Amino acid sequence: MPTVVYQLPDGSASSVDVPAGQTVMDGSVRNNLPGIVAECGGSCSCATCHVYVEGASAEAFDEPSMEEQDLLEYLEGARSCSRLACQLVLGATMDTITVTVAQSNDS
Ligand code: FES
Q1: What is the pLDDT of residues 18-44, one digit of tens each?
Q2: Which of 10, 18, 63, 98 could form a disulfide with 5 if both were Cys (CB 3.0 to 4.6 A apart)?
Q3: Can you give the residue ranges of the 2Fe-2S ferredoxin-type domain (predicted)?
């Protein structure tokens, strides 16, 4: 099962096993981790599941959809490595994925 390491806004990190087919957002919400609010429940419309994903972790996922890119474009604190965690579906062959939870989700 893939492991997702969440680097949290308070500087701590949490490591969670997330079943393939679930999203990076699911893994956070189901384990009550702080930082990913996920107001819209994963329908790519609220952008309160903003995370930064870099390097091999970023490459493991498909490119963002137009919908996701549109939301990210106007998001406070967005960087080129920004993603919406509800759009990051874990695959069975993934090992460890590291994401940094954006500070802006709570504001
Ligand atoms: S949970 Fe709303 S956009 Fe991801």
Answers
A1: 999 999 999 999 999 999 999 999 999
A2: 98
A3: 2-105
